[in-house]
Amino acid sequence: MNDTSALVNTAYRQLFVHLSGEERLRFASESFESAKVIVRSSLCGIENGVELRKKMFLRFYGNDVDEMFIRKFFEVLTENSQ
Questions:
Q1: Are residues 33 and 60 in contact, defined by beta-carbon separation less than 8 angstroms?
Q2: What is the pLDDT of residues 14-62, one digit of tens each?
Q3: Which site from 3, 46, 57, 68 is most exposed, i.e. has the minimal number of CB atoms within 10 Å?
Q4: Which of 52, 79, 57, 81 lies closest to 70 in space, CA to CA?
């Protein structure tokens, strides 16, 4: 899905053209941190730990990986938390 107008998309690309690699990396990192805060706030009732990590993983990557990968990842995550 792309709901960004061509004008805004062009302006956004021009912004990044003029940034250094370090600035683009910092921008991406800060954006990801902000996204994590938003996702975390939507997961009511889950305080921390493995269950929170699982829910956040699914929210961010659940549509991009297959079910077998998710199962294996959750197994490793659970094993490493003990």
A1: no
A2: 989 999 999 999 999 999 999 999 999 999 888 778 999 999 999 999 9
A3: 3
A4: 57
Distance CA 12, CA 14 (A): 5
Give the rounded distance of the alpha carbon of 80 from its chain centre.
21
Cα atoms in the 13 Å half-sphere on the side-chain side of 57: 16
Burial zone of 31 (CB within 10 Å; 0-12 exposed, 13-18 middle, 19+ buried) = exposed
Integer Cα distance of 2 and 74 in angstroms: 31
Tell me which DSSP letter residue 67 carries.
H
Q: Other CB atoms closer than 10 Å to residue 74's CB: what's the count?
A: 15
